[in-house]
Amino acid sequence: MPENVARESLYLTTPIFYANAEPHLGHAYTMVLADVLARFWRARGRDVFVVTGTDEHGDKIAQVAAAAGVAPKAHTDRVSGQFRAAWDGAGLRYDHFVRTTDPQHQRFVQKILADIHARGDIYFGSYRGLYCYGCERFYQERELVDGRCPDHGTPPAEIAEENYFFRMGAYQERLLQLLDDRPDLIFPDGYRREVLGVLREPIGDLCISRPKTRLDWGIELPFDDRYVTYVWFDALFSYMSPLEALGRMDLWPSVEHLIAKDILKQHAIFWPTMLMAADLPVYRRLCVHGYWQVNEGKMSKSIGNVVRPGDMKARYGMDAFRYYLLRDMAFGQDADFSEVGLIARLNGDLANGLGNLASRVLAMQQRYFKGVVQPRAEEPPDAQLREAFAVARRSSDAHVEAFAFHRALEEIWRAIEQANRYVTETAPFTLAKDPARLPRVGAILHELCEALRTSAQLLEPFLPETAVRLAEQLGFPPPRLAELDLPWGQAFPPAHRTAAPQALFPRIDAPPD
Ligand code: MSP
Question: Whole-model pTM?
Answer without folding.
Answer: 0.94
